[in-house]
Design a protein that fits this description.
five-stranded parallel sheet; 19 helices; about 45% helix
């Protein structure tokens, strides 16, 4: 996607020269001739980069004063100063005040393009670092597992990612909706542009509009103050709108209008902001039920769900648990600088027997807690068995017993598991009745002689 560059200079030929060079390189350019027109252009939509002349005749603010405004309102927006002969020192001073770099008149094309590419690359890297900080270390770079349902999701990602179609991801909490959204963005033509994620459920109803659309206001001096929202920050890239069904009714209406017109108004703003954004949305709620009751607009849902993607809960794809556990162990050990351990087959069987209502997120949290608790008591062979699992996991089924503390019913064939269960059950009942075989036989529903034979066969 073309990156948006604003050129602010009072000389028409300078603006046209810079714009022509950048246009030929595939950039999208806009022009302004003074401070006020420049502020208006930024209010219309914040650019990816600004070229700003230091001295502008007839302008209410000179370049340095305007730079201060930019640093106050948009500190992460790169600004390259345009300096003429005799004001290079001023340009260097501007860098100390926050400008990214400067170029001198007359321009050298190579210098202009080099500064542009470096500024864009710095912005891209800063954005990626911010995304990495926001992104939980628990998230893997790809979807893990080979279940049929996961393969179907992979197919949808491969088909839809190269397009600009809006995608709606349905699935329970913790199932990986955010990961799917990132994969779609990474495999799309927009992968070099911003990926902006907001969770609508985390904001109060009166905050969501500002978070999504931004806000305009004027200070005491009348200077326009612009607060950029998620839609504008995602220009050229992808906006992932998580838990979209929690949006208030008025925000749903405004979002629908944005999808129809490809433009929006900031809160308190009168001028429409044009945007080019791909929207991926998701919800863990029953969307059909919400549209039927009118809590979520059906016309908005149909525009968001051009390509619907359904994620199933982890309990419906238990075969994906072993590879997920392996990936989580590698991530967690690396993150906490822990010695690498392995989950034994019997422990894996127990994990697969769980329903995991929190899905992959809950599984990862349980593995992280287990590894941290095992830090000072690691088994010599590095294998975590079922008996070592925390009680809230390991109590799914009984262990085999003290004679083989590392074994677990889930790891045994049916015949062996039945024998283990019968042994533990009868031992518990005999102890319960103080060793009285007659009372035990009466309670368990067996003849006394049959119980004696069973006790003998089990070696009790």
């Amino acid at each position: 996607m073309a990156l948006d560059i604003l050129i602010i200079d009072d000389e028409d030929d300078i603006r046209d020269l810079i714009a022509g060079i950048l246009d030929d390189e595939g950039f999208e350019t806009r022009q302004a001739h003074d401070a006020d027109s420049g502020l208006n252009e930024i209010a219309r939509r914040r650019p990816s980069l600004v070229f700003l002349d230091i001295w502008m005749q007839g302008s209410r603010l000179d370049g340095l004063q305007l730079l201060d405004v930019f640093q106050s309102q948009h500190p992460d927006m790169p600004v390259v100063m345009i300096s003429g002969h005799g004001n290079v020192e001023t340009a260097v001073s501007a860098i100390r005040r926050g400008a990214y770099d400067y170029i001198e008149k007359p321009f050298k094309i190579d210098r202009l393009l080099h500064v542009t590419q470096r500024a864009m690359e710095a912005t891209r890297l800063r954005t990626e670092v911010a995304e990495l900080k926001e992104r939980s270390a628990s998230k893997s770079a790809d979807m893990v597992g080979g279940s049929p349902s996961l393969q179907q999701v992979r197919g949808l990602i491969d088909k839809s990612a190269p397009t600009n179609s809006r995608i709606f991801i349905a699935g329970p909490s913790g199932a990986g909706k955010g990961l799917v959204a990132r994969l779609i963005h990474q495999r799309s033509p927009r992968n070099d542009s911003p990926f902006v994620e907001i969770n609508a459920s985390l904001y109060a109803p009166d905050e969501v509009s500002v978070v999504l659309f931004g806000r305009e206001s004027r200070d005491k001096s009348g200077l326009l103050q612009v607060e950029v929202g998620a839609l504008e920050r995602a220009h050229g890239g992808t906006l992932y709108l998580s838990e979209v069904t929690t949006l208030p009714a008025q925000v749903q209406t405004a979002l629908l209008r944005t999808l129809v017109e490809n433009r929006f108004n900031r809160v308190g703003g009168a001028q429409a902001v044009p945007i080019d954004v791909r929207i991926i949305s998701s919800s863990s709620q029953n969307v059909s039920g919400l549209t039927e009751t009118g809590e979520f607009r059906s016309d908005l849902f149909h525009r968001l769900a051009i390509v619907p993607v359904q994620l199933v809960p982890l309990k419906e794809r238990r075969e994906d648990i072993p590879p997920l556990v392996s990936v989580f162990i590698e991530q967690i050990c690396r993150m906490h600088n822990l010695q690498r351990m392995v989950i034994g087959e019997d422990a894996i069987a127990v994990l697969q027997a769980q329903d995991w209502p929190g899905n992959a997120r809950q599984l990862r949290n349980s593995i992280e807690r287990l590894l941290i608790l095992m830090k000072d008591q690691q088994p010599e062979d590095g294998v975590i068995t079922a008996s070592m699992l925390p009680s809230d996991i390991g109590e799914v089924l009984p262990t085999v017993g003290d004679t083989d503390a590392s074994a677990h019913l889930m790891s045994l064939p049916l015949r062996d598991a039945r024998e283990v269960f019968e042994r533990q059950y009868l031992l518990a009942q005999i102890e319960r009745f103080g060793g009285n075989i007659s009372k035990t036989a009466e309670f368990v529903g067996m003849e006394r002689s049959a119980l004696h034979r069973k006790i003998k066969s089990l070696g009790l």
